[in-house]
Amino acid sequence: MTTSTGEHSRVSAAVAVNSELVALYWQMGRRLRDEVVGEDRATYGEETVAAVARVLTAEYGRGFNRRNLYHMLLFVDRFPDEAIVNALRTQLSWTHFRALAALEDPLKRQFYTEMCRVERWSTRVLRAKIDGLLFERTAIAKRPDAVIARELAALQEHSVGADLVFRDPYVLDFLKLPADFSEEQLEAAILGELEAFLLELGSGFSFVARQKRMSIGADDYYLDLLFFHRRLRALVAIELKLGRFDARDKGQMELYLRWLDKHERHPDENPPLGLILCADKNEEQIELLELDRGSVRVASYLTELPPRDVLERKLTQAVAHARAHASLRQDSSDAAL
Description:
The protein is α/β, with parallel strands linked by helices and 337 residues long. It has 15 helices and six strands. The protein has helices at residues 3-37, 46-60, 66-78, 82-88, 94-101, 106-119, 123-131, 134-137, 145-156, 162-165, 183-192, 194-201, 247-263, 283-288, 308-336, and strands spanning 170-171, 205-216, 219-229, 234-244, 273-280, 296-302. It has a six-stranded mixed beta sheet with strand order 1-6-5-4-3-2. α1 (3-37) packs across α3.
């Protein structure tokens, strides 16, 4: 038996064991809920569960202690559909499910579940994504719930839209920039830490070019960074701005995208997308220019990470504002009909 064959056999065996463990814990959670806890759901029948845990631990060991039984109960509550669990248990481990079950919001939980499955995140990566507020920073979080549900349903079929790819803000604290950095220093720092930058951009991005030259008539223009996104099947142009977003930046990016579409886009690719990364932006201006959707997106970047509670509060407010705006826009559209 070759080394690679042996390794493959060990991985297959581990997957099979994990799959059976997840199925066992789900079944155990359902039986605890239906046969032991009963109507005492608010506290999960603490005394009853503790008594069951003592018996099971004495019989089978630590895997059935009180804390793990609570995880099993929560698992069944968060993932009540056995068919869905069976479809996921060969791809996600018990530790994945424990981290996912801790998320109260159903759409957020579905987002991380699908991203974890599609991107094959380890448990460590999943927890890092949750701690880094990935869901709140994706454009999809700012859409109405019905839109989010449609996007996540499409993700189940491995169809990834731009709303799932682009984020706001991007956290670039790993660049270690001086207080008075220039655009050239920002670009050089990104390229110097390209691997970390690609991790922050998200999976699927491949670096193509720096200072991409575009000759238009008698003039030469230079695009800061050019990437390709595998799942979107599209070139992604990135422009870096030190200051606040200016409406004129939109026209510049649209010019670049048209040039890329004409000269660089392959026949089997989708139209290019543009991302303007700036230090700050006016949300109302972004909404008026309809840059919260379409081929040109605007996002801010953070070179220093604020306290998590501050960032979470800011993102929660931004998501609420964007959803309210989307709801008003939909009401206006319905009224016009």
